[in-house]
Amino acid sequence: MRNIPYQTDLCVVGGGMAGLCCAIAAARHGIKVILVQDRPVLGGNASSEIRMWIGGAHGKDNREGGIIEEIFLENFYQNPSLKYPIWDSVLYEKAKAEKNLTLLLNTSCLDAAMDGNRIVRIKAWQSNAESFHLISAAYFADCSGDSILAPLTGARYMYGREAKSEFGERIPPDIADKKTMGMSCLFQIRETDHKVDFIPPSWAYRYESDADLPYKDHCTDNNFWWIELGGEWDCIHDTDRCRDELLKICYGVWDHMKNRGDHGVDNWELEWIGFLPGKRESRRYVGKYIVTQNDVEAEGRFDDIVAYAGWSMDDHFPEGFYYTKGHPTIYHPAPQPWGLPLRCMISANIENLIFAGRNISVTHAALSSSRVMATCAILGQALGTAAACALKSGRTIENVDIGELQQTLMADDCYIPWHDREVPALTLRAQCSAEVIRNGKDRGDANLWTGNTGDCIEYEFDRDTHISEIRLVFDNDMNRAYHNMPCNYPLVQTKFKLPRTLIKEYRIEGEASDGERFSVRVDDNRQRLVRHFVNWKIKKIRFVPLATHGCEDFRLFDFEIK
Predict the structure, then answer these.
(1) Residues 392 and 458 in one domain
(2) pLDDT one-digit tens code per residue, 49-77
(3) Using DSSP, how many helices (H) and how many strands (E) does the chain show?
(4) Domain tally, the chain
(5) Is the pLDDT of residue 514 over 70?
(6) What per-residue confidence (pLDDT) applies to 101?
(7) Which residue range(s) make up the domain with 392?
(8) Are 155 and 350 contacting, i.e. CB atoms less than 8 angstroms apart?
(9) Which phi and psi angles does 556 have, rounded to 5°?
(10) Judging by beta carbons within 10 Å of its beta carbon (0-12, 13-18, 19+), is residue 483 exposed, middle or buried?
């Protein structure tokens, strides 16, 4: 056995979408990061091991930006047929591309050393390398979902449903309990051009008629999220027990669809079934602030807002699959969007413990809206950025300059509701041929420049001016309806390519007063946010669009210089 010591700025535990975006954001902002993931792949519930598509805020123009959208667009580029092993590799590539990020896969956190209320070091076991990793860090970000650092450090946490009276909420039960939303094993099916038989395993459950599956839609266009259990058990310690029961249900449901009545699936076959349950709820940390249902309904207009949600308060019944009184969840309305504060990601009693994902400091009712993965991803990016700001400024994370943090996040294309992004002074100093592209608003039709072949956007200064950075934000079709990954594979599959609205080819041309010219040309853009770092001294600069990924006109939200 080997003991491998590390000293780093930030240790992120958990490589789901929250942990991945947290680690990438912190690394990009210049601090050293170690990402500890107990599985062989990244993505958590979105990975090939579980295969839940990524959901986020509802509402027009509310799609999450930043790193999560960057990942989506890269996946559409590399993986147009949306194969899960390729999706895994896109996530892996994003982590491995960061020089400040060390990735430890197949590595489970199993112990923590404390100095009073401060974490000194964690100990993690990498089974396939027979190695213990001893990681010391300034901050530890628990993005594990199950909050593994809570029992190891003595951090305060919540589990189950609060009583209505505890926070004055309407959704919870009258009496507090230890029940949660459950976990699901999903399965995927593929259509063929011929009839396919199915023989269920002997241990599968048998559902003779549709009456055995009340309120459970089992058509082909379904990801079978309602195959859910564990809310009445222990969603951490009973995970394998849940898996065993869920597999019996999964095979039974598919047997019912294939062999017990006409469900239109004669030519469909079972493509994949998940042996790792996807979790919705377990431990939730107690932070500097606990977000409640009342905060959700008041739109979460916190002074230290750094992210937002916008999914309904989707509260699954703890009985899951065995709830027979109606639909297995209640969609309580929630504002679109509503804000989340930095304080709900900072431990109330452990000095250097922070967290992002479904384990943030929220009540059960608020969790029912904040738990979806795109929300978790932007929470992770906000937390990683905040950790970097804290360490670089010498402040504690709860005392970072919130205004500076918010501006940094918005510059990185993280939308913060009710806040305006500051436009660089250099951009405002020049004359501009299209004012809309320097208004600091990077979404919404009213903030979109639209051009045709031969059109361009130009800035002109009164004298030669040095510029170091060019920022572009393209139209990525924020309101597209398709998911990042599929729930099934029909015979004729839609090739989910990059949004047609994205500009694919463009030039940026700079010109000095003496006629010296500078240029950048891009022939294969697939991103919404693009930055070019230059060292030009120019009097004029223009953006010239050349081609899109299919749209007839050219669309641009932002063209700024500094």
Answers:
(1) no
(2) 999 999 999 999 999 999 999 999 999 99
(3) 11, 25
(4) 3
(5) yes
(6) 98
(7) 2-50+97-161+280-411
(8) yes
(9) -145, 135
(10) middle
pTM tops 0.85, yes or no: yes
Q: For residue 554, tell me if it sits in a domain.
A: yes
User: Residue 400 CB: number of other CB atoms within 10 A?
Assistant: 23
Q: Decide if 174 is inside a domain.
A: no
Q: Are 390 and 175 in contact (CB under 8 A)?
A: no
Asked if 297 and 337 sit in the same domain, the reply is yes
Question: In degrees, to the nearest 5, what angle opens at C-alpha 326 toward C-alphas 323 and 332?
Answer: 100
Q: In 10 A of CB 281, how many CB atoms? A: 27
Tokens of 123: 């100990």
Residue with tokens 């549709």: 210
Which pLDDT tens digit goes with each residue over 300-331?
999 999 999 999 999 999 999 999 999 999 99
Last residue of one domain, picked from the residues 252, 279, 306: 279
Mean of all residue pLDDT scores within the chain = 97
366 and 403 assigned to the same domain: yes
Q: Encode pLDDT of 138-148 as tens digits.
A: 999 999 999 99
The CATH number covering residue 448 comes to: 2.60.120.260
Question: Is residue 136 a contact partner of residue 5, using CB atoms and an 8 Å limit?
Answer: yes
pLDDT bucket at 496, cuts 50 / 70 / 90: low
**Could you give the CA distance from residue 130 to residue 132 in angstroms, rounded to a whole number?**
7
Structure tokens at 559: 């063209």
